[in-house]
Amino acid sequence: MADFSTDTLITSIIKAVLIVVFLLLSVLIAIWFERKVIGRMQERPGPNVHGPFGLLQSLFDAMKLLIKEDITVKAADKVVYILAPMISVFCALLVFAVIPLGPEVRIPFTDIITPLQLTDFPVATLYILACASVGVYGIVLGGWSSGSTYPLLGSVRSTAQVISYELAMGLSLVSVFIMAGSMSTSQIVDSQDTMWWLFPLFPAFIIYVISMMGEVNRLPFDLPEAGGELVSGYMTEYSSMKFAWFFLAEYINMLNVSAVATTLFLGGYHAPWPISQINDGMFDQGWWGLLWFLIKLWGFMFFFVWVRGTVVRFRYDQFMIFGWKVLIPFALGWIFILAAFRGVQEFGNIDARPILFAIAAIAAVLLVVTLIIDQRTSARSQPERASANTNENEPPFDAFANGYPVPPLPGQTLPPSPRAARRAAQPATRTAQVESTGQEDNDDN
């Protein structure tokens, strides 16, 4: 593991403060970055007024949330209602403590040599999973304590989402543990000195990337928020800085899962080949490592934004079926294959790496084919379910029969909206008035 024997208490405190500042600044940049990229995708400029290239727009948005009126719902459990966003933010800030941002470096103007990492221990990756699991309690408690239906539904969805997709994420990380022989983040990075785990463990990488998007509630897996269904989900009853804390936690978690993917699959702070071979690895040492780490990190952030701008939200049943019937079984099968490979390599004294690459390619193809078949099967069976659920003798569907709105199942249709009927009747009434008066009212013009 990385050597922290020369770190003093002051050094550790300075590192912790710098990590917090780095995360807060990265969130401001990420919000601006997301709005600019999606704006370019949708052929609009995005933020371009406050500061050069609109860089200060995120800062002004944060100040606006800071001075907004802080409203507390009367029906809320006030202690839990206030505590929930704090839990989400604090757990999100803890993850970067074990992320190696670079190798050992010399602090400028001093004789201090220290790793660009706050701390590390033999089960650091399990610590990351534990922080992610506890952070979900903020979402669950925030929805439950709001005393409202939509936040409660969002928090329940978040619970199911974490149970299903965190299992797949944990199984994908087991592949890295088997190959690296350690759960220490610094040792995993060192094990990728010659080859990144992305290539031999490509199926596990695909599973992790899909799971990390479900873990941070981003499109197409933002079911706990689901603006088109639940208003804003678990954040509906929050305002001002309490809402901003949830918003902050979401973006910090995006940085967290991107940093974990960089550390476990993309070699961490190691330079990409062939740059790592120049001048005996000159560009793979010192402060260069921080540069490569940030490039990989923001590559994943661009991927988050790209998916949000191009992919629509899953239905909830599709979401759960995909997690339990596709990702988890496939991850279990891949671990079984990888364990067999390691057994042959260790005890049979055989170089089985070509076999592993072939198996990884076949498994990746099978995963993609499985996703396509599952999507087509779901689309083909939907008309059948609709026809099966249609019965002429059944009464008309009532969305408010149980006291709260329920979306229609396939084959059920909502009754016509009274408001839509009034709007449809307005043009006919207006036409009759124009024909009778011969002119339109000035205020309508």
The chain-level mean pLDDT equals 80
Radius of gyration, Cα only, in angstroms? 26 Å
Question: How far apart, in Å, are the first and last alpha carbons?
Answer: 75 Å
- Across the major sheet, the strand order is 1-2
Total domains: 1
| Class from secondary-structure proportions | mainly alpha
Main pleated-sheet profile: 2 strands, antiparallel
Count every beta strand, where a strand is a DSSP E run of 2 or more residues.
Answer: 2
Q: In terms of per-residue confidence, which ranges show pLDDT below 50 for 5 or more consecutive residues?
A: 440-445
Strand content: under 5%
Tell me, briefly, the overall form: globular
Task: Please give the share of residues in helix.
Answer: 55-70%
The H-and-E topology, N to C, reads as HHHEEHHHHHHHHHH
Individual helix count: 13
Oligomer: single chain
Structure commentary:
Helix 11 packs antiparallel against helix 12. The protein starts with 8 loop residues before the first helix and ends in an 8-residue tail after the last helix. The longest helix has 37 residues. 62% of the residues lie in helices and 2% in strands. Strands 1-2 form a two-stranded antiparallel ribbon. The chain has one domain. It is an all-alpha fold. The protein has 13 helices and 2 strands; from the N terminus they run αααββαααααααααα. InterPro entries: NADH_UbQ_OxRdtase_su1/FPO, NADH_UbQ_OxRdtase_su1_CS.
